[in-house]
């Protein structure tokens, strides 16, 4: 197993263990039958099948179209290389995420991520199985790896997974910083740079009327800075009381994982 995969698994394991110790990892508040199945299947689908497939296919396509550029960026300055990943992976994912909340058919692929009535590291990869297959950011990373930046991607993906795992966790570590006066300047900077629980939990809130929920914004994954830059940021000082989706028809495990192959009945009750 590659070192970066070991590091990612260790990060995930540490957060899982912390949630087991300090919150309810296996029985989250408002958890519904089927939530665990959606999370397990979608996580395995991405890590075992989709991500390796997309990165491989991106390399194959590049080898056919631009064979002369294989490894062309291998000697690039590390800071420039990181900047390329921030643009062609993280910023692209910001726009893909934003589009997923703007176009109904894309939201069908992304809705499983928001369908949970709780926050947890369990949600990090919870999406429809086609969501990541179509995500431009993953293909962009594949192209950069083909161009010789695989050595940078290994470190970049560890940092990114650390940030988004911490942002989804219900440990709410940033509120601890807020309670330490000396740490408040650091928190101010962090909230405007990377995703944190306060900003990302607001994106998962259920009721827009609560004054905290901001599901049409706070789209950033690694960098929250994209929300600042593109005008979709909302930085609150509290967490939503409820999580999930509102005013949408109920859905099934099969639809969450495999829409449009499986569809919920048209007369499904509305979730409010």
Brief overview:
56% of the residues lie in helices and 1% in strands. It contains 10 helices and 2 strands.
By DSSP, the count of extended strands is 2
This entry's quaternary arrangement is single chain
Radius of gyration: 19 Å
Low-confidence residue ranges = none
Major beta sheet, strand line-up: 1-2
Largest sheet: 2 strands, antiparallel
The percentage helix is 55-70%
Shape: globular
Q: How many DSSP H or I helices?
A: 10
Query: How many structural domains can be distinguished in the coordinates?
Result: 1
Strand/helix succession: HHHHHHHHHEHE
Structural class: mainly alpha
Q: Tell me the distance between the termini.
A: 45 Å
Mean pLDDT reading: 94
Q: Approximately what portion of the residues adopt beta-strand conformation?
A: under 5%
Can you give keywords for this protein?
272 residues; mainly alpha; two-stranded antiparallel ribbon; 10 helices; 2 strands; 56% helix; globular
Overview of the structural elements:
With 272 residues, the chain is an all-alpha fold. The protein has one domain. The protein contains ten helices and two strands, in the order αααααααααβαβ. It has a two-stranded antiparallel sheet with strand order 1-2. The radius of gyration is 19 Å and the shape is globular.
């Amino acid at each position: 197993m590659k070192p970066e995969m070991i590091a990612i698994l260790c990060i995930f394991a540490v957060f899982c263990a912390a949630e087991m110790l300090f919150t309810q990892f296996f029985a989250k508040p408002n958890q519904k039958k089927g939530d665990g199945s959606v999370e397990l299947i979608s996580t395995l689908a991405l890590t075992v099948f989709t991500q390796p497939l997309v990165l491989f296919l991106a390399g194959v396509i590049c080898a056919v179209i631009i064979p002369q550029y294989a490894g062309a960026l291998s000697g690039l300055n590390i800071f420039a290389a990181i900047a390329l990943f921030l643009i062609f992976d993280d910023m692209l994912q910001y726009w893909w995420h934003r589009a997923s909340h703007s176009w109904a058919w894309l939201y069908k692929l992304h809705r499983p991520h928001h369908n949970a009535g709780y926050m947890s590291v369990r949600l990090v990869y919870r999406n429809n199985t086609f969501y990541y297959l179509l995500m431009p950011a993953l293909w962009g990373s594949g192209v950069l790896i083909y161009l010789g930046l695989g050595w940078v991607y290994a470190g970049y993906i560890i940092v990114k997974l650390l940030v988004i795992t911490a942002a989804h966790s219900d440990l709410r570590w940033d509120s601890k910083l807020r309670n330490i006066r000396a740490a408040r300047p650091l928190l101010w900077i962090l909230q405007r740079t990377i995703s944190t629980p306060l900003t990302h939990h607001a994106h998962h809130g259920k009721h827009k009327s609560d004054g905290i929920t901001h599901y049409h914004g706070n789209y950033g994954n690694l960098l929250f800075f994209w929300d600042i830059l593109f005008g979709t940021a909302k930085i609150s000082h509290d967490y939503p009381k409820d999580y999930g989706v509102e005013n949408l028809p109920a859905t099934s495990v099969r639809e969450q994982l495999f829409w449009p192959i499986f569809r919920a009945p048209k007369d499904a009750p509305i979730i409010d």
